[in-house]
Every structure is written in structure tokens, then in C-alpha cells.
Amino acid sequence: MKPVLITLLCSIWVVSEVHGAVDDGWTAVAPREEIRPQFQRQETGGKSSHGALTIQTDECEGLHGWWQKTFPVTAGQYYRFSAWRRAENIAVPRRSVVARVLWRDDTGREVKRREGVVTNFLRGFEASAEPEYPRESREANQGWVEMTGVYQAPPSATRAIIELHLLWAPKASVNWSDIGFQPTEAPPPRKIRLASVHYRPHGGKTPMGNCRQFAPLIEEAARRQADLVVLGETLTYPGTGLSYADCAEAIPGPSTEYFGELAKKHGLYVVPGLIERDRHLLFNVAVLIGPDGKVAGKYRKACLPRS
Fold it and tell me: What are φ and ψ of residue 141, in 5° steps?
């Protein structure tokens, strides 16, 4: 997902808009004509037979385009985005099939996330409202997947630009169908209790010996009703006298299985920092383990620690 985010956030491009026979506000857009995929509007078909917006690529690498439409919004109002997409011949749909919501004012400029909010480290700088990225929600028959999310329009926002992308997938296609962006009620509040463990293992001798030292700390966090417990990075390494390579393991692996048992026992999420081995490569990785004891995801940092 990360490469998609970087590309899209940097997409302040002079785009070549492709206007076809679209009478409901949807416009086909590409960053440059030379990487423009094929766009087609289907008057019938789609998930509910009400039509679809299609993007298709040929064998060329790096093609990128999206369907785009602007919706009027009221600042402070919550809106629910929903769209169904069906992707074909795409190895990683989450990377190549992206929906996003951009907040703009009457002039088309970016708006601020909050009025008058400045950061402590950079006085006078007001944070812009970042794009929203709807997530995959549920799957239906024939490969249709819903992407949805509920978002609050920031102050000064008067319009929302919806973009439905296909990128980085040769010989692929995506159909977008049943697209909606409607006012909705604010989601109910949800309180999350976070516990962070600041502890450097010592005397463990082995990676698993280090892992076991966190059991009473996770138990204490659970006693305090924590929902998410975050541990330190590369925790299987300190004090063992081993190298990073010696402590590296596959993900899932022995350490994630151990912390998975603790997560399941206490009914919470655990994020241990480990050293992952993928073939001949090592990664400084944070692993998200769910209350079911299974690996829910992982994030690889750019480099190993210096010490």
C-alpha cells in the first residue's frame, strides 16, 4: 500500500482530462496522455445491472488513470462513501485499485484539517486535510468487492473529489459500480486503550528467551484493560550476544506464534518488533497480531537499528 500512497499524494500533476459521453459528472483522467489507459462507460451491467465505469490497460508498464467526480459538501457533515469494484488480472488489488476522497474549497484549493491548528515543531504551518482512502469492506458474488468509509468534511471544505484509480497493472481491468457519496450520521464514539511497553530484554540468551520476558508486561497491560499493546523494536536481539541474522526468522514464525498465544489468552492486539528473514534479506519489522492469535499485518522499516 505504501507505494500507492506516495504516488497519489504527489499527484499534483497537470492532468490530461478525457471527456467522453458522460452525463452524470464522471470524467476520465490520466496524468499524461502517454500513460493513459482505456476508459469505457457501460450503460448496463455492473454489480446491480445499473452500469459501470471501466478502466483497462494493455501490456505497457506504468499505465495510470482514474474516474473522477466532484460532490458538494458541507463542512462538519459526515459522508459515507461506497463503491463496488471488480478487478481482473491484478496481483495485488489493494496496491493497484485505489479509491480516494479529496477535500477542496470553492476555488479548488486544499483545505485545512482544523481551523487555526498549528504544529509545535513548525509554527505557522497548518496541516492540510489529507486524502481519505476507503477500505475493502466485504465481498459479494462474481468477484465484486465493496470499498467504503465514513468521513467528516473538514472546515472550509465545500466539495469532495472522488477518484477511482487503476495503476501499475499491465493487461488488467477494473469495473467500478454502484458508487455513492451521501450524508450520514456521525459514527458512534469508540474508545481504544493503548499500552506501550518500554523494556529492553536482558539475559535472554535466545530470541525466545527475550520473548518470554514480555509475558508479565502484557499480562499487566491486559489487567489494565488495554486493547492494543505495542512492544519495542527488534526485541529478540538485545542481550543475546547474537547477530541480527542469528535472530531473524520468518513471519509468521516462532515469535509471532508465542505472542499470538498471549494475544489470544488476553483478548487484545499485540505489536512486537522483530527481525524478519525473507530469503537472504533481513527486515526490521513491526507485526500486528490480533486477538485470534493470528498475524493481521506487518510493516517493514527502511533499515535496521544502528545499535
Answer: -70, 160
Q: What is the pLDDT of residues 225-243, one digit of tens each?
A: 999 999 999 999 999 999 9
- Other C-beta atoms closer than 10 Å to the C-beta of 64 total 22
Residue 14's pLDDT is 37
Cβ contacts of residue 127 below 8 Å, gap of 6+? Answer: 112, 113, 114, 117, 119
- The strand pair at 27-30 and 16-18 is best described as antiparallel
Give the rounded distance of the alpha carbon of 196 from its chain centre. 22
CA dist 26 to 17, 85, 168, Å? 11, 16, 22
pLDDT digits (tens, 9 = 90+) for 196-227: 999 999 999 999 999 999 999 999 999 999 99
State which CATH number among 1.10.10.60, 3.40.640.10, 3.60.110.10, 3.90.550.10 fits the domain covering 194-300: 3.60.110.10
The answer to whether 134 and 83 are in contact (CB under 8 A) is yes
Count of CB atoms situated within 10 Å of the CB of 177? 20
Residue ranges per domain, the chain? Answer: 2-184, 194-300
* CB 215, CB 272: distance < 8 Å: no
CATH number of 2-184: 2.60.120.260
Q: What percent of the chain has pLDDT over 70?
A: 88
Q: Is the alpha carbon torsion for 5, 6, 12, 16 positive or negative?
A: negative
Cβ neighbours of residue 2 closer than 8 Å, sequence gap 6 or more: none
Euclidean distance between CA atoms 40 and 22, whole angstroms: 10
The number of beta carbons lying within 10 Å of the beta carbon of residue 34 is 10
CA 86 to centroid of chain Cα atoms:
19
Query: What separation, in Å, do the N-terminal and C-terminal C-alpha atoms of the chain show?
Result: 29
